[in-house]
Amino acid sequence: MSRKYYTLAILEDGIWAPQFGDYDRDCVKFEADDYKDHGTKLKDIRIICTKDDQASIESAVSALNSK
User: How far is CA 59 from CA 30, 32, 34, 35, in A?
Assistant: First the structure.
């Protein structure tokens, strides 16, 4: 059975890329805060929620990049 999985995606050179993931959203938010502390703008940070399989994560990141 799949579980909710949270992925931190960062916009780099116009492309969204996954940087970190965990089952605990607070853990992913902590990583996002670290990116903000090091100068990444809030608009360039997304936390996405998917099933915990690679295909779901890749599909969600691809959807971000198609916008």
Answer: 24, 21, 25, 23
Indicate the domain borders of the chain: 4-65
Are residues 60 and 8 in contact, defined by beta-carbon separation less than 8 angstroms?
A: no
- Token readout for 15 is 């492309």
pTM beyond 0.85, yes or no: yes
Determine the Cα–Cα distance for residues 42 and 32; give it in Å rounded to an integer. 9
Whether the per-residue pLDDT at 63 is higher than 80: the answer is: yes
CB 61 within 8 A of CB 22: no
Rounded to an integer, what distance in angstroms lies between the CA atom of residue 43 and that of residue 2? 29
Q: What is the reported pLDDT for 2?
A: 77
Strand order in the sheet with 45-51: 15-22, 4-12, 45-51
